[in-house]
Specification:
By secondary structure, this protein is of the alpha+beta class. The chain has a single domain, classed as Orthogonal Bundle (434 Repressor (Amino-terminal Domain)), CATH 1.10.260.40. The protein contains six helices and six strands; from the N terminus they run ββββααααααββ. The protein is globular. The protein starts with a strand and ends with a strand. The mean pLDDT is 85.
């Protein structure tokens, strides 16, 4: 099984395990990632469940996966659209309570996708999760083509 550092998501810490090397018509090796939408849902779930505050790249990934513009997300969070931009650029950090609400909004927005994402935690647990100062680790995902979901977290 090969590993692939999936930077196309805009995130620096996503590793997927599976066989993604294919050949094009000229015999050149190309990377082919199947079920991209499902992969992005698994990444989103991993980001929503991780400990520590969301960083700018993670906020941008989650926002775009949920289909929000910066302005639309800002309106839901009762913030200025420029604030969302500053979070995404890393100019300012998101406040813990806003991080908690953002995670809930994204989980609810993505929930209709096969009932896949639920936070399954109360606000006390969420508060501890977003308040932790942790070094972000890699999110490792494995491709399992024989399963309907196609992707799951690697153990």
């Amino acid at each position: 099984m090969d590993t692939y550092h999936y930077t196309e998501s805009g995130l620096k810490n996503i590793i997927i395990n599976g066989d993604f090397i294919d050949c094009d018509d000229q015999g050149n090796e190309v990377i082919t990632i199947p079920a991209l939408g499902m992969l992005h849902l698994v990444i989103a779930k991993g980001l929503l469940m991780q400990e520590g505050p969301l960083d700018g790249d993670e906020i941008k990934f989650l926002r775009t996966e949920a289909g929000f513009t910066q302005a639309a997300l800002a309106e839901l969070l009762h913030r200025d659209p420029q604030t969302v931009g500053r979070w995404e650029r890393g100019d300012t950090k998101i406040e813990a309570i806003t991080d908690m609400v953002l995670r809930q909004i994204i989980a609810e927005k993505l929930q209709p996708e096969r009932n896949f994402i639920t936070l399954n935690t109360g606000f006390e647990t969420q508060s501890k999760r977003v308040g932790m100062v942790v070094k972000k680790s890699q999110l490792t995902i494995k491709h399992t083509p024989e399963k309907e979901e196609h992707y799951s977290f690697a153990s």
